[in-house]
Design a protein that fits this description.
SH3 type barrels; alpha+beta; seven-stranded mixed β-sheet; globular; binds biotin; BirA Bifunctional Protein, domain 2; 6 helices; five-stranded antiparallel β-sheet
């Protein structure tokens, strides 16, 4: 098996790096990282927008032609984001918020949007779109409409976005290779960074109902294996709120 080698395609302004990667999927090599300085129509999950001002944050999309399950593209991406963030701020309590965000202290610092590229009814690969807030200041973060953080907000220091993008690229290349060889190892590492197994959480389900759940486990499909008032149930999507005392960095 040959391991993926990252190629970085640097663009100035695009509508969305995910759209660019999707439109050019056939001509882009496996493991190409489309990176932009700004996005005019950055896409978030569930039809939301992703705040993408110029030169301030990381906006990238990784073309993964050897993955057909978007859940595994999410795992590769979130572990790579954590590695990059923890290299900068090793003591900050970053964690993965199921299913695909990276948080610190109840604030979102990174969002991941994985989309399949299809031909007819077959999946040709996955595009993993990753946004990481790097130099947004408090005023900009407050304008986002949900609790958000950036590296600068956490440390007070201004960061070199290009340098961090290259570091993220290296981590993506590494975790993509681990996925190809040892997907179960990657899954275990990802599961361990979710901090919800054995905890009580609340989940806003796809119909908007709030469910209070005890989390027993996470299945290899990514589904939450839970109990609601003692009754077993499973969820594959929804917005999770983790109780403050369950989070890393706070005593149990
Ligand atoms: C979310 O949390 O809602 C997912 C946000 C994903 C944002 C990134 S930024 C780079 C890539 N291009 C997009 O248009 N979206 C993703």
């Amino acid at each position: 098996m040959h391991f993926p080698e990252i190629h970085i395609l640097e663009l100035e302004t695009v509508d969305s790096t995910n759209l660019y990667a999707k439109d050019n999927f056939d001509v882009l090599d496996d493991c190409t990282l489309v990176s932009a300085e700004a996005q005019t129509a950055g896409k978030g999950r569930l039809g939301r927008q992703w705040f993408s001002p110029p030169g301030t944050n990381i906006y990238v999309s990784l073309v993964m032609k050897r993955i057909s399950n978007p859940f595994y593209a999410t795992i590769v991406s979130s572990l790579a984001v954590l590695e990059m963030l923890e290299r900068e701020l090793p003591r900050a309590p970053f964690y993965i918020k199921w299913p695909n965000d990276v948080y610190v202290d109840h604030r979102k610092i990174s969002g991941i949007l994985c989309e399949c590229s299809t031909r007819g009814s077959s999946i040709e690969g996955v595009i993993a779109g990753i946004g990481v807030n790097i130099n947004l200041d408090k005023k900009e973060l407050d304008s986002i409409g949900q609790p958000a953080a950036s590296l600068k907000f956490l440390s007070g220091v201004h960061y070199d976005v290009k340098k961090l993008s290259r570091e993220l690229a290296d981590s993506l290349e590494k975790y993509y290779a681990v996925y190809l060889r040892y997907p179960e190892v990657l899954f275990d590492e990802w599961k361990g960074r979710n901090y919800i197994i054995g905890r009580n959480i609340s989940l806003s389900d796809p119909t908007g109902n709030i469910r209070n759940l005890f989390i027993r486990d996470i299945a290899e499909t990514g589904e939450l294996i839970a109990e609601e008032n003692g009754v077993p149930c499973r969820f594959h999507c929804g917005d999770v709120t983790i109780l403050k005392e369950s989070l890393p960095g706070t005593p149990d």
